[in-house]
């Protein structure tokens, strides 16, 4: 399995990181995409450093839509520089969050457009976070001619799934898929083509059942994989092989890592 979206930097995992990685590897996680976002650029820097230190960890760099109001031009220059570092495989997470509205919507839109353009120019995958703004996000991806990317922690139904798939985006399913009230999401997970779906934990958030409410970690991704397999009427092995291949293709992970 590949955990296509987790936050492993020291703001979330510090003393426990090596045990967390060990448990995940023992559970069958063969690679981690560590998404480097935080209130400052410490998180993307830490993600790049972690990817340099661990052979099975890769990094993305960006600023979460919650925090985009404070990005300076100097920060943009630093992000451009970080995006060129080895083992950086994506830009983000970026996007629109109209549920929390922690940053003004206009600032979120401006930053999202700029990150999409940065990813396209760098030939990197764009990792999108979208909440309560699916139509607006799809419009930006279309207008900015986004390249390959993933809607991380996809939370919509079949209609939203179809819109993103038509734009060439992948859909990534998190522990939410295991929640009782996620029927529309499971319908979307059954609908999406097998070659366009990924799995993720979004650790330390969104632990799947039966760990719901606990601190999430990459080892728990097996629960989401099992649910995805049952929703699609396939074996765990079949969906594991497909999602692993998809993540390797999207992020252009080197073989053998
Ligand atoms: Zn995330």
Q: Top keywords for this entry?
A:
257 residues; alpha/beta; 8-stranded parallel sheet; 8 strands; globular; binds zinc ion
Short recap of the structure:
With 257 residues, the protein is of the alpha/beta class. It is built from nine helices and eight strands.
Number of strands: 8
Spatial separation of the terminal alpha carbons: 12 Å
Name the helix and strand elements from N-terminus to C-terminus, one letter apiece: EHEHEHEHEHEHEHEHH
Low-confidence stretches: none
Report the portion of residues in β strands.
15-25%
The main β sheet shows up as: 8 strands, parallel
Helical amount: 40-55%
Bound molecules: zinc ion
Mean pLDDT: 96
Helix run count: 9
The structure class reads alpha/beta
Describe this structure in words.
This protein has 257 residues and is an alpha/beta fold. The protein has 9 helices and 8 strands. It has helices at 17-27, 42-53, 73-83, 105-122, 134-143, 158-166, 183-191, 221-232, 236-251, and strands spanning 2-6, 31-36, 57-61, 88-97, 125-131, 149-151, 170-173, 197-199. The protein has an 8-stranded parallel β-sheet with strand order 1-2-3-4-5-6-7-8, sandwiched between helices. Strand 2, helix 2 (42-53) and strand 3 form a beta-alpha-beta unit. Helix 6 (158-166) packs parallel to helix 7 and helix 8 packs across helix 9 (236-251). The protein is globular, with a radius of gyration of 17 Å. The chain starts with a strand and ends in a 6-residue tail after the last helix. 50% of the residues are buried. The mean pLDDT is 96. Bound molecules: zinc ion. Zinc ion binds next to loops. Zinc ion binds at residues 5, 7, 35, 93, 202.
């Amino acid at each position: 399995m590949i955990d296509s979206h987790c936050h492993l930097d020291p703001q979330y995992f510090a003393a426990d990181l090596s045990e967390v990685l060990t448990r995940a590897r023992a559970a069958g996680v063969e690679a981690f995409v560590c998404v480097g976002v935080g209130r400052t650029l410490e998180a993307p820097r830490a993600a790049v450093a972690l990817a340099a230190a661990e052979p099975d960890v890769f990094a993305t760099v960006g600023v979460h839509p919650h925090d985009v109001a404070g990005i300076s031009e100097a920060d943009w220059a630093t992000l451009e520089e970080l995006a060129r570092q080895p083992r950086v495989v994506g830009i983000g997470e970026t996007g629109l969050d109209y549920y929390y509205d922690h940053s003004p919507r206009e600032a979120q839109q401006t930053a999202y457009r700029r990150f999409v353009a940065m990813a396209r120019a760098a030939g990197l995958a764009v990792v999108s976070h979208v909440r309560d703004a699916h139509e607006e996000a799809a419009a930006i991806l279309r207008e900015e001619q986004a390249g390959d990317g993933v809607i991380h922690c996809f939370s919509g139904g079949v209609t939203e799934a179809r819109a993103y798939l038509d734009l060439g985006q992948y859909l990534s399913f998190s522990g939410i898929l295991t929640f009782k009230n996620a029927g529309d999401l499971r319908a979307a997970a059954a609908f999406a083509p097998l070659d366009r779906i990924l799995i993720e934990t979004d650790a330390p958030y969104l632990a799947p059942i039966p760990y719901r409410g606990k601190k999430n970690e990459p080892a728990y991704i097996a629960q989401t994989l099992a649910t995805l397999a049952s929703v699609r009427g396939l074996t765990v092995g079949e969906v594991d092989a497909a999602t692993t291949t998809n993540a390797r293709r999207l992020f252009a992970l080197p073989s053998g890592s």
